[in-house]
């Protein structure tokens, strides 16, 4: 052989240079370089569309559904004092869930913007846009890792990641999480959750321990934003399946089932720290949610019925992923029949859920391992992130909620996008048709998303939407001879009618009592067991000066709940208006046992003791307490002075009157009391002087009062 033969002609060496590299090391041509501007352009377009869908939210108002609990009625977020920060960080200040980062973010909103809802919605939308970016990064990272893990060449990864981000950004089921301020916890927990998932993919692909530390940190931050993040370790397990991490562990023996169990066990052990953290936070979340009344009693429904709910919800969330219509902020539990049975479709739901899931997984399995892993990831991620809110244990009064799709849809959306790509790649002839279907579906989501934001504009639009979809009604069925009838009650959503009624009374000026009454009356007709409904009706009848009806409603309310401070107080006020002072005092004393420091209670009881029962020592005691609560209120000194005066303690009375006059020298009523005090002291010239000053400042003196003083002065002379 010629010694000058070029090296590249050596067959042995030529073969050696073509030895295939492991799939994990392949970078090209399976991973083509995409220009950076493409990612930015796609993301920019997705963010613009998402922002357009939510632009109306910027003009939304607070609602009376938990916004008060979290914001404008929550004293802890209104001042960033050391004590309030301590309460925010270490206590469940909403009696709902422990989510300190969420509450801290709302406290910062209040610090800079107060009660202006605009800033809160700006914050919600910004976090949602950031989440949309993170979904893009997550999908991009997964697809890139899949190529390296042997899934073959995947074309157009930026476009696929952009589609995942778009569907997350504009899906109508996510409006509840973004356009409801009280659900700040949803957008915030997913923000940290997504970063944790992205860092985990980096850890799996590069093996850096620092990435593992970041995963743990963002997992904890997600938990501090919303306890639902406890499922994070299971989401990591779904990623392990997708990225074939089970193949890292060596399999021994021929028994495939034994090998599978061993691999799964090793994957779980690898996440033991995450599961320990989840168990700890899960216990705290359940304990505080149960104490706060968020966990419905297990006895309300049977075990069989709860299994039906799980199957039904599992399917309904999936159905609304594809057909997001008839959305509601409140989905009531189904009505039970006279035999305590659910509607028939609930009994079919678990079997349908199992058939759909196993059927699709089986089809994917038959097509190949890679397809099966993608399907297993999609269904697994979806189930893991929705399993705790499928209502096996009822977390709240509604059977399902749109907001629970905010994280759970991610896995299923990724699976759909991947199989859309496979369809185009395997059947190029259908490419245009598939693109048109995807475009139409995306436009539909965007249109419905934007329309859904209008529902959350304010309390009235929110609850009217629920009532339209789930109206309460009373059906009357007559017998053949028309002499008897049976009434069928369909309660609808009681919360909607009650909160809408409250809105008309409490949130608008002037109050619309007629509209409020219509909503409360509907609940009365459907035989509501909510004591608050009858208490509110009592208030409306009191405003209408129908005292008899008012007392009837208050009494009905207390028969359902004898621990209501407000109802005892309101009924006491009504008795007082009727002059039934002893009954009024009984109700005030009942209210005192429920809240021994309420300012309004001490005011009403103090006035009753002073003006009605003439029990001046008791009146003095109540006004003493009021002065400790609000020492700058002149009325408290004036009334205590009057009680002292009637008790014969003239000096103490005049000391109190002086405090009032020093604050307001033109208080005609107090000037008159001063005059009366000097009359009791028989200092008639001074009494006449104060009486004239009272008259000059608009106080109407008793008839002949000055003449009486002048006569007394003359007789004394």
Structure description:
The protein has 717 residues and is mainly α. 68% of the residues lie in helices and 2% in strands. It has helices at residues 11-17, 36-54, 67-72, 82-90, 100-113, 117-151, 157-170, 175-179, 184-206, 209-225, 232-242, 256-269, 272-291, 303-322, 344-367, 369-386, 405-426, 431-455, 459-469, 494-506, 513-525, 531-543, 547-560, 565-578, 581-594, 599-612, 616-629, 634-646, 650-663, 668-680, 684-696, 705-716, and strands at residues 331-332, 398-400, 473-478, 485-490. Strands 1-2 form a two-stranded antiparallel ribbon. Strands 3-4 form a two-stranded antiparallel sheet. A hairpin with a 6-residue loop joins strand 3 and strand 4. Residues 1-28 have low confidence and may be disordered.
Give me a quick take on this structure.
The protein contains 32 helices and 4 strands. The chain has helices at residues 11-17, 36-54, 67-72, 82-90, 100-113, 117-151, 157-170, 175-179, 184-206, 209-225, 232-242, 256-269, 272-291, 303-322, 344-367, 369-386, 405-426, 431-455, 459-469, 494-506, 513-525, 531-543, 547-560, 565-578, 581-594, 599-612, 616-629, 634-646, 650-663, 668-680, 684-696, 705-716, and strands at 331-332, 398-400, 473-478, 485-490.
């Amino acid at each position: 052989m010629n010694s000058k033969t070029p090296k590249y002609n050596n067959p042995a060496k030529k073969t050696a240079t073509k030895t295939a590299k492991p799939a994990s090391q392949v970078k090209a041509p399976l991973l083509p370089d995409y220009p950076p501007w493409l990612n930015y352009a796609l993301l920019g377009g997705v963010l613009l569309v998402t922002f357009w869908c939510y632009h109306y939210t910027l003009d939304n108002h607070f609602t009376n559904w938990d916004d008060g609990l979290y914001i404008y009625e929550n004293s802890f977020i209104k001042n960033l004092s050391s004590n309030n920060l301590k309460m925010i960080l270490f206590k469940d200040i909403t009696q709902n869930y422990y989510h300190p980062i969420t509450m801290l973010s709302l406290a910062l909103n209040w610090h800079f913007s107060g009660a202006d809802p605009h800033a809160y919605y700006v914050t919600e939308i910004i976090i949602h846009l950031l989440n949309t970016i993170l979904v893009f990064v997550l999908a991009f990272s997964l697809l890139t890792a899949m190529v390296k893990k042997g899934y073959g060449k995947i074309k157009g990864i930026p476009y696929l990641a952009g589609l995942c981000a778009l569907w997350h950004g504009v899906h109508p089921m996510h409006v509840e999480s973004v356009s409801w301020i009280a659900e700040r916890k949803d957008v915030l927990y997913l923000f940290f959750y997504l970063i944790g998932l992205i860092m985990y993919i980096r850890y799996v692909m590069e093996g850096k321990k620092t990435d593992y530390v970041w995963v743990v940190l963002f997992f904890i931050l997600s938990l501090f934003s919303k306890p639902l993040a406890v499922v994070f370790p299971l989401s990591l397990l779904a990623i392990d399946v997708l990225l074939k991490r089970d193949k890292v562990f060596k399999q021994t023996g021929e028994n495939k089932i034994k090998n599978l169990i061993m691999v799964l066990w090793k994957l779980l052990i690898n996440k033991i720290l995450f599961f320990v953290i989840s168990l700890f936070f899960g216990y705290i979340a359940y304990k505080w949610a149960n104490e706060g009344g968020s966990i419905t009693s297990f006895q309300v429904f049977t075990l069989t019925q709860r299994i039906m709910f799980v199957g039904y919800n599992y399917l309904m969330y999936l159905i609304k992923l594809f057909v997001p219509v008839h959305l509601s902020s409140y989905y009531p539990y189904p009505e039970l029949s006279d035999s305590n049975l659910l509607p028939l479709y609930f009994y079919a739901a678990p079997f349908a859920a199992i058939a759909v899931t196993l059927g699709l997984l089986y089809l994917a399995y038959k097509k190949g391992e890679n397809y099966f892993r993608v399907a297993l990831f999609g269904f697994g991620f979806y189930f893991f992130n929705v399993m705790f809110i499928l209502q096996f244990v009822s977390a709240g009064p509604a059977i399902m909620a749109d907001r629970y799709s905010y994280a759970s849809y991610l896995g299923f959306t990724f699976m759909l996008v991947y199989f859309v790509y496979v369809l185009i790649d395997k059947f190029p002839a259908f490419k245009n048709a598939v693109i048109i279907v995807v475009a139409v579906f995306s436009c539909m989501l965007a249109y419905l998303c934007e329309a859904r934001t209008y529902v959350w504009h304010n309390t009235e639009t929110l609850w009217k939407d629920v009532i339209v979809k789930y109206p309460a009604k009373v059906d009357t069925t007559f017998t053949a001879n028309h002499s008897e009838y049976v009434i069928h009650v369909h309660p609808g959503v009681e919360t909607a009618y009650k909160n809408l009624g409250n809105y008309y009374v409490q949130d608008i000026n002037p109050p619309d009592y007629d509209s409020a009454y219509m909503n409360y009356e509907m609940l009365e007709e459907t035989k509501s067991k909510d004591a608050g409904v009858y208490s509110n009706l009592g208030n409306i009848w009191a405003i209408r000066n129908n005292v008899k009806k008012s007392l009837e409603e208050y009494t009905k309310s207390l028969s359902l709940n004898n621990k209501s401070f407000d109802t005892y107080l309101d009924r006491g006020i009504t008795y007082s208006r009727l002059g039934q002072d002893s009954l009024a005092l009984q109700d005030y004393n009942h209210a005192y046992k429920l809240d021994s420091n309420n300012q309004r209670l001490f005011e009403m009881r103090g006035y009753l003791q002073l003006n009605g029962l003439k029990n001046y020592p008791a009146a003095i005691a109540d006004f003493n307490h009021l002065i400790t609560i609000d020492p700058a209120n002149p009325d408290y000194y004036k009334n205590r002075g009057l009680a002292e005066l009637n008790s014969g303690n003239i000096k103490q009375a005049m000391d109190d009157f002086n405090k009032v006059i020093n604050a307001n020298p033109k208080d005609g009523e107090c000037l008159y009391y001063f005059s009366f005090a000097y009359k009791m002291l028989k200092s008639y010239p001074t009494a006449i002087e104060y009486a004239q000053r009272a008259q000059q400042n608009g106080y109407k003196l008793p008839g002949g009062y000055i003449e009486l003083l002048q006569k007394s002065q003359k007789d004394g002379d």
